[in-house]
Design goal:
The strands form two sheets. The protein has a four-stranded mixed beta sheet, with helices on one face. The protein is of the alpha/beta class and about 110 residues long.
Length: about 110
C-alpha cells in the first residue's frame, strides 16, 4: 500500500509498480495515511519532511507489525528531533546521510 496526499505521486507510484512487475501487489491511495489505511504491515516507509515524520511516529505502531521496520527519509537538519521522537518507543537500527538528507531505519522496542 502506498499513500500520498499528491495524486500525481500516487499515479507515478502505480506506474513504477507496473514497470517493476509488482502492480498486482501494490495499491496506491491518495489521502492521509491515518484516514485511509487500516491494518498492520511488515514495513512502513515515510519519505516526507521531519514535522510529519515526528507527528506520524506517535501513531505508527497502529500500522506496524511487531518486530518490523519503520523506515524514514527526507529528513534534513531536524534529524535530532526525529531521533528524539523515536527514542521512547523505537531503537534506531541504521542511519544514513547523503548531501544533507538523512534516512533512519528503526524497530519498535520490546
Amino acid at each position: 500500500v502506498g499513500v500520498d496526499i499528491d495524486a500525481l505521486a500516487v499515479k507515478t507510484a502505480g506506474e513504477n509498480a507496473q514497470t517493476n512487475g509488482v502492480e498486482e501487489k501494490f495499491q496506491g491511495i491518495c489521502g492521509n495515511l491515518t484516514d485511509q489505511v487500516a491494518g498492520k504491515y511488515e514495513l512502513v516507509v515515510a519519505n516526507i519532511v521531519a514535522d510529519i515524520i515526528i507527528l506520524l511516529t506517535k501513531d505508527i505502531t497502529r500500522y506496524l507489525n511487531p518486530d518490523r521496520i519503520y523506515l524514514m527519509s527526507g529528513i534534513d537538519t531536524r534529524v535530532q528531533e526525529v531521533r528524539d521522537a523515536l527514542e521512547p518507543r523505537f531503537t534506531i537500527l541504521e542511519e544514513r546521510q547523503e548531501k544533507g538528507w538523512f534516512a533512519l531505519a528503526a524497530k519498535q522496542k520490546s
